[in-house]
Every structure is written in C-alpha cells, then in structure tokens.
Amino acid sequence: MTGAPDQVPAREVLRLAAPALPVLAAEPLYLLVDTAVVGRLGAVSLAGLAVAGVVFAQVTGQLIFLSYGTTSRAARLHGAGRHGDAVGEGVQATWLAVGIGLLLLGVGQLVARPVTEALGDGGVIADEATAWLRVALWGAPMVLVTLAGNGWMRGVQDTARPLRYVLAGNGLSLVLCPALVHGAGLGLVGSAIANVAGQTVGATLFLVALVRAARAGGVSMRPAPAVLRAQLALARDLLARSLAFQACFLSAAAVATRFGAATVAAHQIVLQLWFFQALVLDAVAIAAQSLVGAALGSPDRGAERARAIAGQVTRYGIVLGIGFGVLFAALAGVLPPLFTPDPAVLAAVPVPWWFFTAMQPIAGVVFAIDGVLLGAGDAAFLRTSTLAAAVIGFLPPIWASLAFGWGLAGIWSGLAMFMVIRLVAVGLRARGGHWAVTGAVRS
C-alpha cells in the first residue's frame, strides 16, 4: 500500500459513508421491525415470513449489479470528468430495472406456491409464505429501480439524496406495518402491503431525480443498446456471485425449516440481524466503491490513490467489526425477546447468536475489501472467489446438518467457513494490487 499522501481525508470517507449508513440500514432495520410485528402473530406466521422473506430478498438481492455495477461504471466516468455519461449509466440501469422487475413479477406469481412448498413444510407455513410473497412481488420493480438510483448517485458521490428517498419510503412502511397487521387485522399479508407501499414511494423519488438530472445534463432518456450490453457484461459476474449467495441462504432456510417452526423462526431472527449488520458495515464499502472508482477513472496517479484508499477502508472495517462483535455479545439476552415471546424460539436462538457475534470482525474486513474490488470493477474475481467459498465452505455443512441432525449449529458453521474463505481470498487479492486498472471504463 502507498503512503498517507495518497489517502483521502477521513472526513471525505465519512461524508460518503455517513448518509449511506442509514440508507443501507433502513431496509434491514425495517425488516427487523417487521419481524417483531409479525412475531406477535405466533411461530407459524414468523416462519412463513422467514421462508417468503428469504425468497424475495434473494431474488431481488441477486440483481444487486443494478446498484454496485452502476456505481463502479458511473464513478469512473465521474472521476474522468464525464458527468453526463455517469448520469446516462443511471438511465440505462433504470431501464434494466424496470424490465427485469416486471419479468420477476409475472414469473413470481406463477411459481410462488411451488417455491414456498419446496422450502416450507407444504402445510400452514407454506400457506402463510405464499400469501405474503404474492403481494410482496408487486414491489419487485420498485426495489430494482431504487437499486439503480442508488447506484448512479453513489457513482457521482451523492449519498445525501438517497438517504432522504429511502427514509421516506421505509418511514411509510414502518407506520403502515403494525397498523395493517394488527390494527386492520390483515395478519401477515398486511406486512407485505406495507412493504409495497413504501417501495413505491422510494422508487418514485429516485425516478424524479433521474429525469431532472438527465434533462439538466442533456442526457437522453432512451435505451442505449451499447451501454446496456456493457452493463450486462459486468452483470454476468455479479449475478453469478449473487446466485452463490442465493443458493446458500435458500438452502439454509430449507434445512432450518425441516427442524420445525421454532428452529426456522430463531434462524430468521439472527439471520435478519446478520443482514442488518452486513449492510451497516457496507457503509464504508459504499464510500470505497465511489472513491476507488473515481480514483481509477482519473489520470492523476489513480492506481496509487486507489491502493491507499483500500488500506484506509480495510482498517475502518476492522474497527467497525470489532465494535459490532462487542455490542452484540453484550445484547445477547436483550435483543431476541424483542422479536418474539415464544419460549421455544428463544431457546433456539443462542446457538446461531454466538456464531453471529464471533464473525463480526471477519465481516468488517471482508465487506470493506469487497467495496474496494467492486469499485474497481473486479467482478470476475469476486464471482470466482464467492462461488468457491460457497461450494467449499457454506453448502456442505448446511446439507450435512440435515443428514446428521446438526440443526442450527451446522447451518451457522457453514456461514462461518464461508466468511473465512472469503477473508483469505479478498485479502490476498487486495495485497496483490492487480485489481487497480485505470481508465474511464474498465476493459
């Protein structure tokens, strides 16, 4: 790594990371509240949310290239002084978001029941999961438009407006969720309706901002086939990486379900906390994506500056990870009862909880370096290393848990192995420096 002169001031990292933190935390924080609201309905409803929620999250989450890929490309163009082209990346990413979102909505309605039956018990858990998922799918196009909006705005180093937009949408969902689930007596379906309402508000705000930016910069709002093809080329690697995550977490949910409603409900509580802290740690990674991309797009010592930023954000990730580990260890007896009063669920929580706590420092480093490599557009390496970690580390313990009755201990051992393998892989990659390829567009 290069020395301090090539690093950016800490306040610049904070300027980008601080607004990104609540944006990243807003959705998982809402899901935690949603889990607590639904948890008052009982273990079956909470298990139904666990099954349907992981399906929806993984299907939309595997399309994260609409955000991360767009940030990488827009940041390089922004660093090269081509602001209009950076906004144009947002326009094309939004076209992709709308098209893919409508496809997901149509196909999802057809396969919702078979998927929830495969992951659930085929009985009451599957009934609850199907009802939630059929409604929640109407929000899929909105979620993807929001991903694209976050992507281009981060690329041009604007993380303040996404904060306002996401908080507006999630704030509405936060008010509607308990009102619809308990007040209106809609049960689990009320949770899904609240989700869709908030997602629609957020997506609308991002669309309005994109249209205004395009008009101000004289950027065409029409589809541009050449840019769409370039975005899809980057998407291939990021999609394969996301599919690895999807296979792992869907497998974990399916295996946990086989051990009963209390086990899968406990898994859901700790898993939602895992998703929450993962995205919070990603706040620094978001800053890294924008800063590394801009540095590599600039002709002024871009590679040296990018490597120095990589060292900075890795150190910040370590500090955050240790802090989260200490925090969750201290709250081990406090947080779980907030989600459910069910004694069987609470009795199952400690096993995944201590895995979750111990992995925080590892996660802090992994997510920070992920941000560096994503900002550099090093998607092919991230694809390969993530697939290897999934096949070698995560999936074998999950399915062995089913075969040998290991339960949540086996499932969360798989997640721990997955994170350790990723730590080794991205750590070696960052030290090597081969990812620091300069230019307005990475070839």
From TrEMBL:
Membrane topology type: Multi-pass membrane protein
UniProtKB keywords: Membrane, Transmembrane, Transmembrane helix
GO molecular-function terms, A-Z: antiporter activity; xenobiotic transmembrane transporter activity
Subcellular compartments: Membrane
UniProt entry tagged with the keyword Transmembrane helix: yes
GO cellular component labels: plasma membrane
InterPro entries hit by this protein: DinF-like (IPR044644), MATE_fam (IPR002528)
UniProt keyword annotation of Transmembrane helix present: yes
Residues of the signal peptide: none
Domain of life where this protein originates: Bacteria
A Pfam family annotated for this UniProt entry: MatE
Positions of transmembrane segments: 12-33, 45-69, 90-111, 131-153, 165-186, 192-213, 238-261, 273-296, 316-339, 351-373, 380-399, 405-425
Protein family according to the UniProt entry: Belongs to the multi antimicrobial extrusion (MATE) (TC 2.A.66.1) family.
Name under which the protein is recorded: Putative MATE family efflux protein
Source organism of the structure: Pseudonocardia cypriaca
